[in-house]
Amino acid sequence: MRNPDTFDVIIIGSGPAGFTAAIYASRARLGTLLITGTPWGGQLMLTAEVENFPGFAEGVLGPTLIKNMQQQARHFGAEILFEEVMEVDFSTNPFMIRSGDRTLRGRSIIVATGSSPKWLGLDSEARLRGRGVSTCATCDAPLFMEKKTVVVGGGDEAVEEALALAKYAEKVTVIHRRDTLRATKILQERAFQNERIRFLWDSEVREILGTEKVEGLRLQNVETGEGSEMAVDGVFIAIGYNPNTDLFKGKLALDDRGYIVVHDDTKTSVEGVFVAGDVRDPLYRQAVTAAGDGCKAALDAERYLGKYQS
Ligand code: NAP
Q: Domain for residue 285, yes or no?
């Protein structure tokens, strides 16, 4: 009988990369455990409408997409543990993972821990987090009904946050450090057409003002050096992501930005440990590319385990 704490594949992370890996691995009849991390489901759980995941002509809600993936993985026999991984040891074989009060062993591992939003790094931002400072308009926009809000950033995320906020807020100002957005054209067009959204170019936030809650911003124009203040009730930071790799420092090779270094598509510096999704991808970061990565990592794990039939 199989040791209940030993698996062919242990997948760490529960976004589209992790669940797709779990679907492929369990369908290949590998003993598969996925440890979700907390909160589970990754960034899609905080995404309202996903319009660009193939196969959903009318779009699909992010949490629905993730829950369907979870169901599909379970259907093929994947076990799912809703816990946080505390420690990994890749020097033993099978590899060791400590999660909650359990010590689990995996003959192969797939790391799919994703990434987390970046912060500006201001003291005032840390102090007022949850008091008007947020990185999730999908979660918090209803709190800003008819209020004045800003979004910091110029990528897809910033524009999507602005569009989400504009459904509730009286005014949304997108503050960008340059004078052109890097967001996709279709999102730009929607934002430019939305009369509640305006743009403040060439500007950076120097301080978030307020004691108990956000009351305003101190800004600087980076072209002229001129300073100004703006009264606002909510500040949404949307300036990109950092990979979730703290657990793997000293255990896997990481690049200078903390992303897991890959070779041959999904392989890490440790043979038998594979990687998928945003934790290795500073460039594409799409649900569909993460899912594709998860598929590749599971196939590579299967091949590594010597069970791949081609
Ligand atoms: P991003 O594309 O890296 O954009 C980050 C933005 O924040 C850039 O405009 C950048 O300015 C600005 N920025 C970075 N650091 C800053 C700082 N310290 N102070 C002020 N501004 C700063 O990140 P993202 O928008 O989060 O998107 C990440 C990835 O997810 C992208 O690949 C994106 O396409 C994808 N995504 C896709 C969708 C979708 O398809 N619907 C939705 C959301 C995200 P510069 O432009 O000057 O560098």
A: yes
Same domain, 140 and 210: yes
- Boundary (domain end) residue, out of 178, 210, 237: 237
Q: Which helix (H) or strand (E) is 125 found in, with range? A: helix 123-127
Q: Which of 43, 285, 288 to mutate to test the pocket of ligand 1 (most atoms within 8 A of CB)?
A: 285
- Measured at the CA of 16, the angle between CA 14 and CA 18, to 5 degrees, comes to 45
80 and 98 co-located in one domain: yes
Q: Do 296 and 149 fall within a single domain?
A: no
Q: What is the 3-state secondary structure (H, E, C) of 192-234?
A: HHCCCEEEECCEEEEEEECCCCCCEEEEEECCCCCEEEEECCE
139 has catalytic annotation: yes
Predicted model pTM: 0.85
pLDDT in tens, 81-111: 999 999 999 999 999 999 988 999 999 999 9
Catalytic residue among 5, 89, 139, 255: 139
**Domain CATH code at residue 141:** 3.50.50.60
Active site residue 295: no
Residues of the domain holding 248: 6-116+241-308
Ligand 1 binding pocket, CB closer than 6 Å: 52, 120, 152-158, 160, 177-178, 182, 204, 238-241, 285
